[in-house]
């Protein structure tokens, strides 16, 4: 019986770099895109022997902006994937799309290629905020691309938003979500703005925290978001993610549940049989050795049992359902109450964690201080 696998394909190109973005991405010309796809095809095909043991149930094109690729280039990537891997008939196939790059012909091609889920980088419904963020699209572009996607037959659309923007109030954020809900989506991701080093935002706001919403405002924004989206038919299933029934991101759940996934392309990260590794982020090295995965892999780490336990906890607790005590014992042959006795006692007592039957999960207050909780599940040394 073949083992289950997720595939992640990294497309590093975008129209232009957003002011807040620290992802591996840049604006590339057509010649560079063609060269990259040629190399990516070779890397994909090099996994032919490895792929014999696996069946792919989730496929995710991320970036960058995958929708910036010309249709024929995406078609070539999909052809290489299908030549190499067995794809489940009902596999979830997601493509990240910037509303400013949507074209009717592209959307129709996506459907033809088997893409059945679009993750749209909306980020804000207010044009002044989109300009601040350095986005190439307007809210009107999103509305147009949304209509085209529906007309092309997509019934699984996700939208990304960024909250806690400079100067943003709770009232302004409420208006954002209320406007967004006028355009029905199946899935919503809301990420609180983080000022990352090396970005335009870091130069502008890195030492000016007073220009950002204070902690209490960000807390109110987060709590209101969950309550409001629930009233509109969404269930929060992870710290930053909300979905209608049956529309959770199967690929992202794979990360939090520590299931195997293979990352292909520049910088692609993988987790296979408790071994974590990443492809090189160096363009020249990737282009030179794309046919030999062993030569482009970096940061290879085989996780010992302690590392596996740590990940089981801090990744699993990102889900609102939390983790299963039975699953912990089934995986490691040990009782979670003995391995993490003091940590569990501490957070169950102070209310950051809650327990219901077999499951342990973050409380509402625990979610707000999740990084602090996660840190305590790391073993010393």
UniProtKB/TrEMBL annotation:
SUPFAM superfamilies: Radical SAM enzymes. It comes from the Bacteria. The keyword Lipid metabolism does not apply. Residues 1-235 form the Radical SAM core domain. Transmembrane segments: none annotated. One of its GO terms (cellular component) is cytoplasm. Pfam families: HemN_C, Radical_SAM. It is found in: Cytoplasm. GO terms for biological process: porphyrin-containing compound biosynthetic process. Keywords: 4Fe-4S, Chaperone, Cytoplasm, Heme, Iron, Iron-sulfur, Metal-binding, S-adenosyl-L-methionine. GO terms for molecular function: 4 iron, 4 sulfur cluster binding; coproporphyrinogen oxidase activity; metal ion binding. Probably acts as a heme chaperone, transferring heme to an unknown acceptor. Binds one molecule of heme per monomer, possibly covalently. Binds 1 [4Fe-4S] cluster. The cluster is coordinated with 3 cysteines and an exchangeable S-adenosyl-L-methionine. Belongs to the anaerobic coproporphyrinogen-III oxidase family. HemW subfamily. This is Heme chaperone HemW. It comes from Candidatus Blautia pullistercoris. The gene is hemW.
